[in-house]
Design brief:
Oligomer: heterodimer
Distance between the termini of chain B: 19 Å
CATH architecture of the largest domain in chain B: Up-down Bundle
CATH topology of the largest domain in chain B: Butyryl-CoA Dehydrogenase, subunit A, domain 3
Number of helices of chain B: 7
Radius of gyration of chain B: 23 Å
Largest sheet of chain A: 3 strands, antiparallel
Helix content of chain A: 55-70%
Structural class of chain B: alpha+beta
Number of domains of chain A: 1
Strand order of the largest sheet of chain A: 6-5-7
Strand content of chain B: 5-15%
Largest interface: A-B, 66 and 65 residues
Shape of chain A: elongated
Largest sheet of chain B: 4 strands, antiparallel
Radius of gyration of chain A: 21 Å
Distance between the termini of chain A: 16 Å
Chain lengths: 221, 217
Amino acid sequence: MIKGFSRTWRAMLPWPRPRGGTRYSACHFCDTLHEFAPLEEDMAARCTRCGAVIYQNRPASLARATAFSLAALLLMALGHVFPFLTMDAAAMRRELTLAGAATALIDENAPILGLSVILFTMVTPVVLAGGMIYVCLPLMFGRAAPGAEFTAKWMSRSEPWNMVEVFLLGVIVSLLKLAKVAEVGFGIGFWSFAGVMLCMAGAVAGIDRDELWDRLEVARS
Amino acid sequence: MSGHFVKAADRGLAACHSCGKVSPVKLEDCPRCGSRLHLRKPASIEGTVALMLAAAALYIPSHILPVLRTTELGVVIDNTIVGGMLTFWQSGAYPIALVIFAASILIPLLKIAALSWLCLAATGKMHPSPEKLGRVYWITELLGRWSMIDIFVVGILVSVLQLGNYVTVKPGPGALAFAGVVVLTMLAAMRFEPRLLWDRLDEDAEAPATTHESSPS
C-alpha cells in the first residue's frame, strides 16, 4: 500500500528521474554529449553547440496529452459519421466521408491509393491518439500499461505519417473545384476533423519524448 | 579539434533512435525500449540517395500521366496535375493555383535538391555551415507531407463526382506515381543522418588545409 502510494506520488512530480548515476543526453542533431540537468516547468534545454532543443519540460504533460487525445478520438468518431462535404448537382446529392473517399479509390482500381488514404488519415490518428491515452493515462497514477514501451515506439514512428491537416486542405481545394459545377458546402465531418487536427497538435506538443520515457522507466522500476 | 564539445559517439555512447536514452553502443539493444543501437544510422547516405533517385524517376511520369480521368457526357478528358493548376490560374483562383503549384511541383523538387545538397555536404564535397544545413533539413522534413494533398483531392473527387451519365471521374496512373514521389521523399528525409554533417565539420577542423585549400570565407 505504501508502495502504491509512493508510485502515485512520484507520478505527480513535474518530471520524475529514473535511478542511477550521472545521466547523459545527446543532441539528436549534432550528437554533442550533455550531462542531463533537471529543468523547471515550461523550460527547454538547448544544445550548447548547435542550439537545437534536446528536451523540454511541459507543465501538466500527462493530463494534457490524455485530454487532447481523448477529445481527438471523440471528434474522430463524429467525423466518421457526418460528411466532410455535401454536393448538390443534377438533382442528386452526394456526400463525402473519409471512408467513402478511400473505398471509391479502391473500387476504381486504385487500391494502393485507397489504402494510403486509410493509413494516413484514419489509422495513424487512431494509433497516435489511442496510443497516447493507453500510455499516458496509467502513467498519471505511476503505472505503466502492459506493452506501453511498444506502443510508445509505434506512436513516434507513426507521427510523421499523420496527414489529417493535409486532407483538410485537400477538401478545401476540392470544394473550390466543385463549386464551379455544383452547389457545395462543408459538412460537420469537416469541422470535426479540423478539431481533430488541433487536438492532435495539442496532444503531441503536450509531452516531451524524453519525459514520457523517463516516466515509463520510473513506473517500471 | 571540436573545441570543448564531446560527442556521444567519441565515448562509444549512442542515443537511442526511439526513446533517446544514451547507452553504450556495446549493449547492441537499448536497455529501455529494446530498439537497436547505432552510433549513426547505418548506410544513411546510400539509403537516402537510393530513395531520392527513385523519387526523382517517379516525378517525371507523375506529371506526364493523368492523375484524373473525367468522363463528361461521354467525352473523356485526361487531367494532369499541371493542367489542373492552370485551370485554377485561368479562372482567377490564384491562391489555390499557388497552393497546388507549391505542394505538387515545387516541394518535391525542393526536397530532392535539398537532400542532394545535404548528401554532398555529408560526404565532404561541399562545405556550407551545418546551421544552415540544419534549417534546410528541418524544412524538408516539415514540408514533405503537404505534397500528399493532390492524392487526397483525387480521392475526394473520385468519391463525390459520380453523377450517373453526366459526369464520372476515375483515378489515373499519374496519381500512383505521385503518391510514390511523396512517400519516397519522406522516407529519404527520415533516412538521412544529420549528425554526419557535424562529423564532417570536425574532421575538416582536425585536418586543415591538407584536404582542401579553399580560401576562408
